[in-house]
């Protein structure tokens, strides 16, 4: 493969300033993005790129969606932050709309995805003690191998990725691992102390790993029978990405708890939520949990518009139809520099043949050809365009990928 793309002197200077003053917790591709509109971004030198990452699905509606920007702008001029010490006139309508979208009673608003996961863990434990009757301090939560739920100390403690864990212990106890996609393993791992099963319906960071058909239905059936909460981390898989509102919808399954984030903030600000019925989320009492920014009026105004954009189902249908197109086009690549593809709606994991190069190298070559993707776990690239992408744009991006693979 040819060397990494070069950036001009000004961009080099911007990158160097970042490298000098920003902690090195990421290894970004060498491009300095300055503007974005819809599916396209422009770098500091004026070069355009098709965004096939969408900030890990936080930009499901694309960059600068007019209705979302309008909602944010209007709210900026009225009121931005109150804290939950008082009511604000935006949180209630947002929670009502989101609860309706999810078919649940209650919403607990937070900011980042990791906070939603942490909140879900607290809710599960409190439910385990106060409703199920697990002895205090004994509750366990079953999680899947290969999971990604965020970066806090508790969450990395139940990751099995050494890069996420090593150097950050000691870890929070109370988590039990089972293989992803194996419902019988969940059933075997359940004890009277199990409060919840926490899984991603499709594992995103692991490389868009889709469980066998029937897995989510089996998890639902087992957890219901055993009086264990089913918590679905839909932070990346939810809100239209897979061609349905939630990835759980693919199997007609409703979990006890939805964890939402990323696209919920419309690509404008961080907004996450735990959504469940009152018999579950109602266990949290005043003073037991909170967040200074959670439920702020600015985020609530944007979140309300996000829910409105999803309520008609049009975007989900679009993602489903385009996803079939994407799947057909990507299937052509298998055996031609690609060893496997996994596609769910507008979300794809593409495994690159080692003979061609690493996922990172392919991402760098695509960057040079005007396409943004991100590698994960060495050999995989992840494709997750904004759901407003056009079929012709997807075709063009796949042509670029074909050229890169053939080089
Ligand atoms: C991104 C992600 C998170 C964490 O979200 P942050 O906003 O980065 O904290 C949690 N779970 C899943 C499935 C994710 O993809």
User: Percent of residues in beta strands?
Assistant: 15-25%
What's the number of extended β-strand segments? 15
Radius of gyration: 21 Å
User: What is the name of the CATH architecture of the largest domain?
Assistant: 3-Layer(aba) Sandwich
In the CATH scheme, the class of the largest domain would be: Alpha Beta
By secondary-structure content and strand pairing, the structural class works out as alpha/beta
Number of separate helices: 14
CATH topology of the largest domain: Aspartate Aminotransferase, domain 2
Largest sheet: 7 strands, mixed
User: Could you give the distance between the termini?
Assistant: 7 Å
N-to-C series of helices and strands:
HEEEHHHEHEHHEHEHEEEHHHEEHEEEH
Helix content estimate: 25-40%
Please tell me about this protein's structure.
The chain has 14 helices and 15 strands. It has helices at 9-21, 54-57, 66-78, 91-102, 113-132, 153-157, 162-165, 183-189, 215-225, 278-281, 297-311, 314-331, 359-368, 391-406, and strands at 33-37, 40-43, 48-51, 106-110, 140-144, 175-178, 194-199, 229-233, 257-260, 272-276, 338-343, 348-352, 371-372, 374-376, 380-383. Helix 3 packs antiparallel against helix 11 (297-311) and helix 4 (91-102) packs parallel to helix 11. The model has no long low-confidence stretch (mean pLDDT 97). The strands form three sheets. Strands 4-10-9-8-7-5-6 form a seven-stranded mixed beta sheet, sandwiched between helices. Strands 1-2-3-13 form a four-stranded mixed beta sheet. The chain is an alpha/beta fold and 407 residues long. It folds into two domains: 11-64 and 314-406, Aspartate Aminotransferase, domain 1 (Alpha-Beta Complex), CATH 3.90.1150; 66-311, Aspartate Aminotransferase, domain 2, CATH 3.40.640. The protein starts with 8 loop residues before the first helix and ends with a helix. Helix content is 37%, strand content 16%. Residues 56, 112-114, 117, 148-150, 200, 204-205, 233, 235-236, 261-262 line the site of pyridoxal-5'-phosphate. Pyridoxal-5'-phosphate binds next to helix 5.
């Amino acid at each position: 493969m040819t060397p990494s793309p070069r950036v001009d002197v000004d961009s080099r200077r911007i990158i160097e300033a970042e490298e000098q003053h920003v902690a090195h917790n990421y290894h970004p591709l060498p491009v300095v993005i300055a503007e974005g509109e819809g599916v396209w971004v422009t770098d500091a030198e004026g070069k355009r790129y098709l965004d096939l990452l969408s900030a890990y699905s936080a930009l499901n509606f694309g960059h600068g969606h007019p209705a979302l920007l309008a909602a944010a702008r209007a709210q900026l001029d009225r009121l931005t932050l109150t804290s939950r010490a008082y009511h604000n006139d935006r949180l209630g309508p947002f929670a009502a709309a989101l609860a309706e979208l999810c078919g649940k009673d209650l919403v607990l608003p937070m900011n980042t995805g990791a906070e939603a996961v942490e909140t879900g863990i607290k809710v599960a434990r409190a439910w385990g003690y106060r409703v199920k009757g697990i002895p205090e301090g004994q509750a366990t939560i079953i999680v899947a191998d290969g999971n990604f739920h965020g970066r806090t100390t508790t969450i990395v403690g139940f990751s099995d990725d050494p890069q996420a864990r090593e150097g950050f212990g000691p870890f929070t106890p109370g988590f039990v691992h089972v293989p992803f996609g194996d419902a019988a393993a969940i059933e075997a791992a359940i004890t009277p102390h199990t409060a919840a099963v926490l899984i991603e319906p499709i594992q995103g960071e692991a490389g868009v790993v889709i469980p066998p058909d029937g897995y989510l239905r089996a998890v639902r059936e087992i957890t219901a029978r055993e009086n264990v909460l089913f918590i679905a981390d839909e932070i990346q898989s939810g809100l239209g990405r897979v061609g349905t509102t939630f990835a759980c919808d693919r199997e007609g399954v409703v979990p006890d708890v939805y964890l939402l984030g990323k696209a919920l903030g419309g690509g404008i600000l961080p907004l996450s939520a735990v959504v469940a019925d009152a018999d579950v989320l109602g266990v949290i009492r005043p003073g037991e949990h909170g967040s200074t920014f959670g439920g702020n009026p600015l985020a609530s105004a944007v979140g309300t518009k996000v829910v409105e954009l999803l309520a008609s189902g049009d975007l989900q249908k679009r993602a489903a139809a385009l996803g079939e197109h994407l799947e057909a086009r990507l299937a052509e690549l298998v055996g031609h520099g690609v060893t496997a593809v996994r596609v769910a709606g507008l979300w794809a994991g593409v495994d690159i043949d080692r003979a061609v190069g690493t996922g990172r190298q392919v991402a760098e070559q695509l960057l040079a050809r005007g396409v943004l993707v991100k590698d994960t776990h060495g050999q995989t690239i992840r494709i997750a365009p904004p759901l407003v992408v056009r079929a012709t744009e997807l075709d063009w991006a796949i042509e670029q990928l074909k050229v890169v693979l053939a080089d």
